[in-house]
Amino acid sequence: MSVIQELSRDRRSRDQGVSPRRKGDGRWALFFLAPWFVGLVLITAGPMGASLYLSFTDYDLLSAPQWVGFENFTRMFEDPRFLGSLGVTFTYVFVSVPLQLAAALGLALLLDKGMRGLALYRSVYYLPSLLGGSVAIAILWRQIFGADGLVNQVLALFGVQGQGWVSHPDYALGTLMALNVWTFGAPMVIFLAGLRQIPRMYYEAAAIDGAGRWRQFRSITLPLLTPIVFFNLVLQLIEAFQSFTRAFVVSGGNGGPSDSTLLYTLYLYLKGFGSLDMGYASAMAWFLLLIIGGMTVVNFLASKYWVFYDD
After folding, report:
1. ω before 35 within 30° of 0 (cis)?
2. Which residues does 91 contact at the CB level (< 8 Å), separation at least 6?
3. What is the helix (H) or strand (E) element at residue 204, kind and residue range?
4. Of 131, 90, 124, which is closest to residue 110 (Cα–Cα)?
5. Which helix (H) or strand (E) segment is 74 a member of?
6. N or C terminus of the chain: which is more exposed, having fewer CB within 10 Å?
7. What are the pLDDT digits (tens) for 6-16?
8. Is the model's pLDDT at 50 over the cut of 80?
9. CA 180 to CA 239: how far, in whole Å?
10. Mean confidence (pLDDT) of the chain
11. CA 271 – CA 252 distance, rounded (Å)
């Protein structure tokens, strides 16, 4: 009992030692954080809760939602366009993201050589990441790969007859992948920052031992850069699964030709705002959240086998 009294006495003495100004800091902190909390509730948590409820209903935006349970989720696996959009999305993600990271790492290695005008080159190469998700760039990309676009004009100089790349089912998705690879700026800057953190003494010791550039890259650069590779991989996978604007603009908003560019998010949009099947679209949104969450968990579990930290 005496111990409890002593602890309470110490606590009262500490509280008495806190100035009124110090106590008021907490209220001011809450005051300045209030807009963020309001935004969290009204813009993020509130809509997420509403969409979770709507995913279990039949809702067309015009009448009151009717509870249908798991019907929307079971409908997904009976919907051939849904399954097709999953295949298109996985192909898009698993092909374009590795190519994007490879391009970003390659350019980062070139820029790490200490060339003149590095800041300018870094800014220029970063621009695609800022502009790649815009409607204007998607329209420009559609023109470049059109029947009379820049790509076919260049091919004509070499006597090669081009075609409408965005209008051919076998090549339309490839143009979207190329656009995603082109937006390598953000991971490139992160790779460049990681390369600058590798101690030069490792390369000097390897050079003394007779290791060439390829061996230095394979034995020093890549292992020490694996945490950065992992970070970029997770971010770019999440972003690629959520790609929408490029597919919407390049395909004309319908995922054509022959659903070859029907990404998951585009089909979600078509069901929600095209067919006014908002309950089904909400279920698709939550299923996409599960896919992204599952992929992220898999990456974190697998990282212990290939990501090395210099502890």
Report:
1. no
2. 173
3. helix 200-208
4. 124
5. helix 71-76
6. C
7. 545 555 555 55
8. yes
9. 10
10. 87
11. 16
Q: Please tell me the distance from the alpha carbon of residue 273 to that of residue 214, in angstroms, as a whole number.
A: 52
Of residues 69 and 136, more confidently modeled: 69
List Cα–Cα distances, 108 to 16, 38, 184, in angstroms.
Answer: 56, 40, 10
What pLDDT was estimated at residue 176?
Answer: 93
DSSP type of residue 62: S
- Evaluate if residue 174 carries a pLDDT over 90: yes
10 vs 157, residue with greater confidence: 157
Number of H helices, E strands in the chain: 16, 2
Around Cβ 216, how many Cβ atoms within 10 Å?
17
Taking a C-beta distance cutoff of 8 angstroms, is the pair 197, 111 a contact?
A: no
Kindly report the backbone phi and psi dihedral angles of residue 9, in degrees, each rounded to the nearest multiple of 5, phi listed first.
Answer: -65, -40
Residues 53/62, Cβ–Cβ less than 8 Å: no
Residue 18 has pLDDT above 80, yes or no: no
Q: Cβ neighbours of residue 278 under 8 Å, at least 6 residues apart?
A: 54, 59, 60, 61, 272
